[in-house]
Amino acid sequence: MEKFELLQPKGLREAVLALAEGDADRSTMVLAGGQDLLTEMKEHLAEPSLVVDISGLPQLAGIGEVKDGSIRLGANATIAQIAGHPRLRADLPILTEAADSIASPQIRSVATLGGNLNQRPRCWYYRNEEAFCLKKGGSVCYAAEGMNKYNAILGGGPSYIVHPSDMAPALIALDARVQLVGPDGDREVALADYYTLPSDGPMTSETVRANGEIVVDVIVPPQPQGLRSTYLKFKERESYDWALASVALAVVMDGGVVRHARMSLGGVAPKPWTVDVQGVLAGRPVNDETVAKVADLALDGAKALAHNGYKIPLTRGLIARAFQQLS
Amino acid sequence: MSSDPKSADPATISFTVQESSWTPRKEMTVLDRDIPRIDGPDKVTGRARYSHDMRLPNMVYARLVLAKTPRATVDEIDIAAAQQIEGVVHVGIQKNAGDELAYLGDDSVVAYVAAETPEAAKDAARAVRFMLSPKAPVVTREQSLDPEAPQITRRGNVRAGRGPRGADETEALLEKSAHQVRATYTLPIQHHVCLETHGCVVDFDAAAGEATVYASTQMVSGNAGMFAGLLGLDASKVRIVCQHMGGGFGSKFGPDLQGAIACTIAKATGRPVHLMLDRPQEFQMAGNRSGTHAEVALGCDADGKLTAAAGTIDKLGGVGNGSFPGFPYIYECPSAAQTRSVHTALDSNRAMRAPGHPQASFVMESAVDELAYAVGIGPLEMRMRNAPDDVWKRHLRVVAKEIGWAEHPHKTAPGTPGADGWTEGIGFGLATWRAGGSGGGRCDITIERDGSVISSCGVQDLGTGSRTYVAAIPAEELGLTIEDVTARIGDSALPPGVGSGGSVTTGSIAPVIKQAAHNARVEFEKRLSEITEVAPGGYVWENGSIRTEDGSFDVPFRDACSLLGNKAITASAGFDESNHLTAGGRLHGAQAARVRVDTVTGRVVVVDMVAIQDTGLPLNRLAVRSQINGGMIQALSYGLLEERIVDPELGLLLTDNLESYKIAGSREIGAIRSIIDDEDDRWSVTGMAEATSIPGHSAIANAIFNACGARLRSVPFTPDRVLDALAERA
């Protein structure tokens, strides 16, 4: 990797100011667990001149309940801490199932929530230094016409990456919000709105996070009574892999009909693909017909590339499975 | 077997040595048991030192610079910036401006660097600037067969192998067949994925005119001559050391280009050179198992008896040649199959565990399986009717029983998924290999006056357990325990071993160790006879003691050794082609797989795999089962996941790391059961591991069909392919 300066700030403010000093070409970067940034640096996909190590900042640590009954997940909470949290496991299995599905025990023990939400794409053209693709400032998405088995069926174009985060769809199904601190102050963004599509704007980022901003924590608001949730991730290699497709689903049933439903899909689009299923489900029972409607809605506009057509039936199947599991 | 009088030291063997034979099973105390590998603790604690781990005083770290374009002309190469990097010791150019890059592989090496630290070497490698004019990649079969395609090798793009003979007659037989299958089966290029990448550490002392090379190699003894040539030395001046190595699977026989470059740097710098490939380089230039594209036809009569085989089988091994997959395979019938190499601009295939066989197995076992369901007799009965000998039939019966075939509900038609979308199936496949060994190996046994026993042979241990039997065989012969014997291996200064290829190591080396230990024992008895007046042959060695049969002498082994006077026992033996210690003939084997298929997602879960393997005398039952397990796991990984993917337009190797080149992990492995065929009555030794890696993926494909009716004609059976095959069926 290229030489860089490492800053270990004493406080959040120092970190934010240091990051904000970076140029527009993002030559300052945030380091937490390092599971994505260090690999990007070793492969020369990221070459920051200043690395701001936020792993020691106390404001970013921990998992806990806040006054209004919300749950606060610190950006530096590790994936293993989330997976092993008894309260989450009991009340919000969608989060612990998502955490359990990520990478390997070794990676989960150091990878952080903030890093998971902000990680860069895994597309093998993007990850190959030799391919100067759209995501790296080039002019071509090689996956569009190339070996695109793992790429997007929804929301693609001009880039066809899929967002690799598992925590993001799970948190979106719980209406979670991210809290950011930046040089211009604090702000809160619904996680569903945190991610962008390639057609929305700058290709070199997947989120609305501005230069100098740091994700401090994620707030999961109080959930409706009787909520049941699951994260169903399908990997090509069960031992250790990214999602070919995943379904994050949270529902509340009331007397045989759906009162509340939230769904977000992973592995199929350049951002967590959030589907407003409340309309087709509210007041209706979960049966083959309504689940098919949900799948139709979720896959509305799905477009297969040369090698990823299988993702359409796969995603339909996973959606049905997720509903079976919860109803 | 008798010792070779010309090569044995006349001072130590001064009498005719009788050929020994393996101790009968009932009398064995060390062999034919589970023996934990003696270097296990070293490996799990990190004490074992691999070539990668060598750190010599004053050593430089070398690194190759690879282009990523299969075919190109080098327009410009500039090493000035690399030379300026702090800590850089040497930069060399491998491809000058105007040179051609002919294929993605070792021909991609454009330059190399050496530096004081690995980091400086990496920086310097990146600082080498080169400009290429890329040409059409020609990395797929279709690109190579295009009439407009550029010529990939001097021999052209297609080289014929065997056949076709009697195509018309065979076609007539096929036409007359009650059933026939005509299908295309494909297998991708697979990689060896050695945990330890290829490379070596060269310690060249120019002043002394000698060198020691720490090489990750499957052929310690043979490498001395090869490195000698590269260093301009006599083979006698080069010592090869490989105490432990992290996998070879057929890909690590020679120094390769990286070894040659390490020698060049050693000569240029006068310093020890550490040059190991990194993982992407390993995927690009360290060899592979060839891919296959087979368009074949197979016929059978109304009873399922095979009648004729035909077709064209293309081997896709880049610019290389080597073993073709045969058709038919194991099962016999008249054949007019044509094999040919279709060359692409990719690195040459190398031997990889039973070269050609796993590919041949998939094509044949799939076609046989398709016929089995067409005839309506089911996959087991079809194989019983066509297995060429009774051992295979017996093996099939064993694995069928173990996998639960008798109780299986749908034997002649695929199953149907339950309400949850899952369904279960069973499939079969046969294995084969040749038993035996090859010549060239020698072993020395030394028995010291203090009771130390040293068993020495330059053979390498690929992780298979050869070090363990180098100690265990003398222990058995001398009535000792394995802890009483020190094994010395992995060093060309020792008596020569053999190259570990074709599963010949055990059949070549074990008899030599056995004979050397026997010779030592006879020599020992000869010495004792001067004291006891009991002639050699009249002694019993057991439980750590030596006694005469008449009971007049009975002393612990160590005490007996102290009677040796000032002269230790040394004995030696070489390989005799006519020995009776090495098994001959054919190896068989059968495997069965039970899978669960999720028809919703295309997931294939291998819940159970069973193999039976004839092994001759199993020296170490634990090691043999471990080898059978390994063969099944390697085939499972091949069947479910492994595939080299190259972008056909860019020529970019996309699977050059262990994230995108997927190998099976612990959650892909279900029950794995290895059965040693104890009815094999050859009380003689052979290797057999390659046989075990041949049919596993075939059995899995057949089990998938039995489960759900989806015929997977392309390896690997990833969810997308399973879903596609299910859709095709529907």
TrEMBL record, chain A:
SMART domains: CO_deh_flav_C. The keyword DNA-binding does not apply. The keyword Flavoprotein applies. It comes from the Bacteria. InterPro entries: CO_DH_flav_C, CO_DH_flav_C_dom_sf, Diverse_Substr_Oxidored, FAD-bd_PCMH, FAD-bd_PCMH-like_sf, FAD-bd_PCMH_sub1, FAD-bd_PCMH_sub2, Mopterin_DH_FAD-bd. Keywords: FAD, Flavoprotein, Oxidoreductase. Pfam families: CO_deh_flav_C, FAD_binding_5. GO terms for molecular function: FAD binding; oxidoreductase activity. Its EC number is 1.3.7.9. It is an enzyme of class 1 (oxidoreductase). Residues 1-225 form the FAD-binding PCMH-type domain. PANTHER family: XANTHINE DEHYDROGENASE FAD-BINDING SUBUNIT XDHB-RELATED, XANTHINE DEHYDROGENASE SUBUNIT C-RELATED. This is 4-hydroxybenzoyl-CoA reductase subunit beta. It comes from Rohdeia mirabilis. The gene is hcrB_1.
From TrEMBL, chain B:
InterPro entries: Ald_Oxase/Xan_DH_a/b, Ald_Oxase/Xan_DH_a/b_sf, AldOxase/xan_DH_MoCoBD1, AldOxase/xan_DH_MoCoBD2, AldOxase/xan_DH_Mopterin-bd_sf, N-heterocyclic_Hydroxylase. The keyword Oxidoreductase applies. It is an enzyme of class 1 (oxidoreductase). The keyword NADP does not apply. One of its GO terms (molecular function) is xanthine dehydrogenase activity. It comes from the Bacteria. Residues 45-136 form the Aldehyde oxidase/xanthine dehydrogenase a/b hammerhead domain. Its EC number is 1.17.1.4. This is Putative xanthine dehydrogenase subunit D.
